[in-house]
Each structure stands twice: as structure tokens, then as C-alpha cells.
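Note to self: keep these together.
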Amino acid sequence: MTLTMGTAAPAQKLLTLEDVMSGGNNWQNLRPATLQATWWGNTLVQTTPDEAKDALTGATLVTVEQINDIVGEKAVRNGHYLTFPEAGQPLVMVKATAKQWLVDWQKRQVVWQQAIPDGSAHHDLSAARHLAYTMQGNLGVVTADGEVRAVTTDGSTDSSDAIVYGQSVHRNEFGIDKGTFWSPDGQHLAFYRMDQSMVPSYPQVDISQRIATAYTDRYPMAGEASHHVGVGIYHVATGQTTWLQLVGEKDDYHTNLSWSPDGSTLYIFELNRDQNHLRLVAYDVQTGAVKRQILEERHPKYVEPEHPLTFLPWDDSKAVMQSQRDGYNHLYLLDLKTASLTQLTNGPWVVEELLGFNRKARTLIYRSNEKHPLTSAVWSVTLRGKRTLLSTADGVHAARLSADGSQFVDYYTSPTVPRSINLVSTTGGTTQNLLTATDPWAEQGYAIPEITSGSIKAADGTTDLFFRMVKPIGFDATKQYPAVVYVYGGPHAHNVEASWHWGLRGWEAYMATKGFLVFVLDNRGSNRRGRDFEQATFRHLGDEEMKDQMQGVAYLQSLPYVDSNRLGVHGWSFGGFMTTNLMCTYPDAFKVGVAGGPVIDWKYYEVMYGERYMDTPQQNPEGYRQSSLLPKAGQLKGRLQIIFGYNDPTCVPQHTLSFVRACADAGTQPDLFLYPGDGHNMFGRDQIHLHERITRYFMDFLAPVAP
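Structure:
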């Protein structure tokens, strides 16, 4: 089935990169209207640059001017950043560069304030108002009464960062995005210690200096030495630190830390380096000793924990756990006394997020794609597994629960709805519309390309794959157009969904103004389709993904309005790997490619990600050999431009430089462009420059009619 939306009138204005890219001068003006909101207990508060007001009544609670008057300085410059930490109390948290305040707006007074150490980062405020922070590799705490304490002193202070405290570890894999974790009462701080002294240093160059200087990134490549992680517990009352006696090997992964509600136990999901054996271990916070191993999970390919335990608000002995053990990410009720699991959700679909609980009804509120792989909806489920759909409109929903879980603010979008924001009850369908955005592109007179979505079969002949197609402005089915395949293709991502314009990226709309058809397909190996769908690529990254993408190419070639002699391909990161691979493996299919920040050889990529999907080079030498693009350099026939950030710490420059060297040795001719000072992605005005360069390359070498 093919679903279509939008068509263009030739007389309308054409979108530019300034209109559609986040670094553009007009981008903000062409985004759908929204409502910035946060919960103050069970009251939804709308924040604007000037004030905070009740989102339902419109009554002003406090203005930015009033807060700054109370504080005595211009601490707040934008009301969007206000937070309301205590339900029912007229308190607003205000944070500036050097200080933070708790302001009572009714009494018009500062009830608490705290200095923020100069040069500090990774701030984490506890429920007891103790502030954790990092500085020069070390961890510190400012107590609620203002005492500044050094929790650690042996952290690294130079660019090598051999020992680091209080920051995310394992290169932000396994759902990790921070390195400090306060107990529920805010009096105990769990934190990571990462020792990278055994990890090789990758050389980088800073050209911003008069004489370029060298610095290093600690970069553990697949099969090489990995860092060692420890977990400490800092006790504010005593000023002492307890170190957990972690089980397993030194280079195991320690992920998804969660505190018991009473603060006596810390639970950690621990994964062996092979990533096929998971243990949930409980540790005594006072002694650091293992209390017991709660459960374990094994899989012949890999296990991937991404979510900590979430305790039931009404029963401290039970917690909700997420797992793919039945093939799809689902919710399980874990009885911590008996270590027994009860599956709460099941089916060939994925739980995408546990939003929280309705405490009175004793239900779990979650988001899943049960209705269709391209959609998401909000549901409730009882402890007996009875599910109730709470968001009925087809499309993509995101939600945030009130403090008691009785209602949620629902951010909804669909292919034809830019944004609709509603207040919804979690017990029975009560909905109040807060905002419905109009289409800013149409309102401002821009031509909107025809955007379609449909499905084709994967290379296995049975699995449905979903695509998005963007047709050129002024599309005429009697003509033939050049087509560009935009690809990512890797795990933990997808490109096609039932959101506004089917998830259209701004650059695709820009390409439509230049006369190109753009085609985007989510192949096997991408996310939201279950464990087997994603693990189909295990140990041979690129093989099955390319087979599926070539099914998409065959579909394009079957369309009378696609010029099969003018096919291009573009992608970034894993998509850069796919682009380069497709150009070299199917050199007669693609005339032009632009590969951004590509992986070229997986043995150059980092331990956690690389070994999960490929095992180590020692364990899987044939898979690494077949997945490497270096031996394929001589097969390049079309025009390939490679672009990368000169200081990329994620996909290090060695990838691209090795491929360029291999092409020179083989006599093939790729083009190369780089962004000094940029990392794995370009931001700000560099985004405009980048996408203009990508577009020009296709204009120069793909748009002309082939001879």
C-alpha cells in the first residue's frame, strides 16, 4: 500500500537550506508551532521566554522579570528553562553560570542559594540540594549548606584523560548518558570511575593555534584493550566513599544503575565483554559487598541492556524491568524477593518507553509501536497484563506524565498533522486540546513536495520494509528524474515513521527543489522491529543491509519516472559506511555518492559498538575481512565524495584516510572534503555549508542527462 501527501504549485516559493536546516537563518520560522510545558506536580505549566503560566487557565504564575527582581540580578534570560521542583509549593529553580537559587514567587524571596564552582561541568543536584560536579577529571560535591568538597583527587588533568570520575563510561553505550546517580533521599552519590590508562591514545591535531598542537583521544578499538570501570558511593553525612566490589572481569560493562527506594541497595546490570551474558547484581551501599545476583540473561549473539530498574511506587519489593528476551523489548515485573519475572506486555512489537505509573489506579503507562511499526501510541497496562490504548489517533505520540500519573501531556504528529498537543487522562480518554499547529510551509507560501510512504519485501522475500519517497517539485509522471537514495541502515536508528511528512529531513525537501527524487528505506538491522530484525546483520555488517537497499533500488528502477542511469546514494556515519560500500559493491548501480564520516574498516571502530555487532577481529576474522571496504577500493567506478570532521572522536579520521590511501594504490579517484575543528557531525552554519556541498556534488555529477 502506498500513502501519499502533499503536492506543489509551481508558482510557490522554493525552500532553501536557510529554511530547512537547523543552522539556517529562517529555520525557526518554518517549524510547526509548539507549547513548551513542564509539570509542577499535577499542574501543567507553560513556559515562555517571559513567564510561566498555568497551561489550562492561562493564569500567570511568575514572570522572568519578577524572578530577576527577587534574585537581584539578571539570572534568567529565558523562561523556557525554569523548573518547578516541589509539587504544590510555589518554588522555582533558577540556574545561572555561577549560582543557582530556589525562589518562592509568592513570598517574593530566595529560600536557598548555592554557588557553582567556576570551571565545573556535569552538574547533578540531589533531592537534598547537594550538587555533584566534575572538574579536570575529578568529582566534587557542594553540600546544601555551601561546603565545597573534593570527592576524588587523582583524576586526570591533561588531555589524555587516563582516569575520569563522574562522567559517562563505555562510550555512552547501553543507555548510559551520565556518570553520577543520587539516592532517592539525596544523601548518597553513586558515581563512575573510568581508568583508561591501558587504552591507546588516538592522535588528533588542533589547527586553531598559531602553531598547530597535538592532543589525544583515548580510543579503545575492537579487539584491543578496553577501559576498566569502578563504581563508588559517596556518603555526604560522613564524607567517606565506599567502593563496590564488582563481580566479573575488569573490562566488563557496568550499566543502568538504579537505587532501591530506601537507599540501601544499588542494582547494576553487568555485561561481559562478549556482550552475550547479562547479570543483575545487588550491592550493599554501606559495605560495597555483593548482596546477591538477582537474575541473568544469555543470548548466542548479544544481550543489550538499555534501561535501569524502575520500582513500583506502591511496592518497594517489586520493579519493572525491560528486556528483549522474547525477541521484542517488553515490560516485566521483577519480584526482588523471589527473583521471579512476570511478563506484562507481549507481542511482535516494541515497547519504546516506560513513561511512569498511575499511582492510584496502579497501572504502568508506556509507549509502543503495537498498532503499526511506523507509529507509536501511549498505553496503560495493569499488573495482570490488561492493556488499554490511551492515545487513539494514528501517528507518532510522545508523552510526559503528571506527578501522580493521572494525566499526560501528549505531543502528537502524523503525516498530515504538524503537531497537536493535548492533555489526556490515563484512566479514560478525557482529552483537552492545548495547541494544534498549522503547516508553516503551506502558510508561508512554500512549495511542498509530494511525499509518499509504502513497503517492499526485504531480500529474504518475506519481511516488510518501509520507505519514504520525496518527489521533485512540479513532478510530472511522464518525465524521468535522477534519484538519490538516502541511507543510514545501522542499529538503534530508523528514518521512516508516520510523523509529519513521514519523518522528512529538511535536506530531502531541498533536493526536491533541485529536481531530484529522494528515496529512503529502513533495511533489516535498523531498530523498532525486534531483536531478530536487528540481529540479522550480526558478524557481517553491511551484507544484509546492502541486499535490502538493492531491493529498494530495484523498486526505483521499476518506476517509469526514475532514470535508472542517474542513481545516487548518500549517508552519514553508518550511512557513510553503507554509501561507500554500495558504491564499491554495486559500481554499476550508482553513478554518484556522498559518504559522510564513514566507517571503512570495523577493526578501527570502538570496542563496545564494534564487538557487539561483529565480535572481535580475533573471533571473527572472516567477518571483519568481508566487511572492510579497503579491499573494495579498486572497484570504485562512479564519483564518490567523502566528507568528515577533521577531529572526529567517534569515527576517527583513520577510516577515511586509509580508504583514500587504498584508492590511490588501486588507481581509483574519490573526492575528499573535511571540516577542521568539527567532530562526527557538523552544527550551526557548518550544516548549511555541508548540505550545500552535498547538493552541489549531485548537481554537478548526477543531474546532467547521461550520454
